[in-house]
Amino acid sequence: MFNLTLARKKVIWAYIFLAIPIVFFAYFRIYPTIFAFQMSLYDWNPLAEEQEFVGTGNYEELFEDLGKERSATRKAFENTALYIIIGMPAQLLLALAIALMLNEIRFLSSFYRVLFFLPFVTSTIAIAWVFRILYERQGFINTMLEAFSLPTQPFLLSPNQALFSITAMVVWQGLGFAVIIFLAGLKQIPRIYYEAAEIDGATRWQSFWRITFPLLNPSIVYLVVLQSISFLRMFAPVYAMTVQGSGGPLNSTTTVVLRVVREAFDSNNYGYAATLTVVLFVIILVITVLQLRLTSRQID
Amino acid sequence: MATLQRSSVFKEPSRQTVRSRRGWGYRALSYAVLTILGLTMLIPFLWMISTSFKPLSEILIPRFMPIEPTLDNYRYVLTETELPRWYLNSIIVALISTISVAFFDSLAGYVFAKYRFPGKRIIFVVFLSSLMVPTEMLIIPWFIMSANPVVGGTWIDTYWGIAFPGVITAAGIFLMRQFMQGVPDELLDAARIDGVNEFGLFWRVAVPLSLPAIGALCIFNFLGNWNAFIWPLIITSQREMMTLPVGLQFFSTESGSDWHLIMTGASLSVVPLLIVVIIFQRYIIEGIALTGLKG
Fold first, then answer.
1. Over the stretch A99-128, which tens digit does the pLDDT of each residue have?
2. Which residues of A are less than 8 Å from B246 in CB distance?
3. Which of B22, B136, B144 lies closest to A46 in CB terms?
4. Which of A91, B62, B68, B75 sits most deeply, having the most CB atoms within 10 A of its CB?
5. What DSSP element (H or E) covers A102?
6. In-domain check, residue B143
7. Residue B165: exposure state from Cβ atoms within 10 A (0-12, 13-18, ≥19)
8. pLDDT confidence tier of residue B242, bands split at 50, 70 and 90
């Protein structure tokens, strides 16, 4: 009798405690998600009296834009893909190399770890402006190039180099996070494996490919997914490092999220912008589901 | 109890046997490469700080140390621009959301860890699946909701407007649930028999036992809010309501080629936080390694 009333009392308390979080998630997460889907079906304009239902009109327009050679939308998707294809592997390879080296040393190892970690916790905007100035015509990097009698480069001013220059900054900033995840993964590999391999006469190279690499697989999959998604959502570095946050020169650095912000808040084209975010959501969903499939197969 | 402190990821295991026999060449090479890469990490910070002490006449001189170091840039930025106000705004917004997250995420995590009630699974799954929706998808609906909210006037250019998306987080609830599962049931039952009410069990038993986790959650959340950009950019239009990153973006755009002033603003926004991070670095790094959270 006592137990029953206590159990019932606990149920009531659970709901009281969860009341505010439930309202929060319903109103600020779920409702806006549905709202974004709904908006993508309208020619939504905040200035209009009534919103015109266009069905799949925005999606058709989006696919038309993707077909057009010079459209900003197509450029945004191409660039975002480039950021992922260049940035993600560069970041992971560098981070893995650094983590392996950090794992090798003892003296000063925590000092180096902090060094690689610092950029990750600093404001992207501040860092982006520092890099913008380092990349200037007479900035630090060009001065260094001149000192070594190398030709100076336009970097952010050139449509061919701007994307790479921004990627370099993002790789630089995000490196520390990947290093920490790799280090945590490396620490979990039992030392005995390496000792056994050494007794069997394995070279370092063989130990790496046969022991480290396969056992580090969960960390690698995790980082591939996480870093791909963060490159996919890239906005602040491009906004801060291009003139007037334009994604220029000549749309050469613009991203999907930058297009979303421009279409919505500059052009009042909420419907089209919402459609872009739905596409972004679907891509992230596919990546996440693939990751879950991959990692659950490993457990089996 | 599963706490952050106890399960130290970075406790050095004994690897003397392997290391001593394998050549010092690898280690020497590691030190060399790490030093070069480490310098690459430091140079932008050092350049930023040194430029902030240079007068205008020196910014184009390719020299690391200022010839005539000056504090004028700092004087100018701190008295003639809105930077101090942006600082205050950032602190207020980060505090609002961090305090709220510490309380509500812990409470919800505690409920999911320690209570049985109908609908528990579905509510938890719904909360967690909201993590899959990128913020970018929500900013347009949020903006419309903020311009015409159910309560109050407009939320545009208010602290609540900047802070509301982050006052409760699914990742934090998940993290706290994991930790609160380590709170022994016997302890809760004993306190219950002693007449402690249900909220008291959370506040006086579960919370004190989970302080390391709550601390980690607070640090991540504070950092994340401090550096947040896209939503504060959209929800603020008046200069005096901007947060530090948004203000810095506008300030820098306006200052054009006044590199010394931009670098002073950047230094002011970066250096205090760096000092805090260096003090707590071990704690933060272990927190990330354990949770895989991205701040």
1. 999 988 888 888 898 999 899 989 999 999
2. 125
3. B144
4. A91
5. helix A88-104
6. yes
7. buried
8. very high
List the end-to-end C-alpha distance of chain B, in Å, as a whole number.
24
Burial of B178 (0-12, 13-18, 19+ CB in 10 A): middle
The answer to whether residue B201 is domain-embedded is yes
| Structural domain containing residue B169 | 71-291
* CATH number for the domain harbouring residue B144: 1.10.3720.10
Instruction: State pTM to two decimals.
Output: 0.90
Q: Where are the beta strands (DSSP E) in chain B?
A: none
Q: Is residue B19 part of a domain?
A: no
Query: Among A186, A198, A188, which Cα is nearest to B20's?
Result: A198
Within 8 A of A112 by CB-CB distance, chain B residues are 34, 38
For residue A254, the distance in angstroms to the closest alpha carbon of chain B comes to 15
ipTM value for the complex: 0.91
The Cα–Cα gap between B37 and B237 comes to 40
**How far apart, in whole angstroms, are the C-alpha atoms of residue A50 and residue A52?**
6
Domains observed in chain A:
2-39 (no CATH), 68-299 (1.10.3720.10)
Taking the C-alpha atoms of residue A264 and residue A36, their distance in angstroms, rounded to an integer, is 12
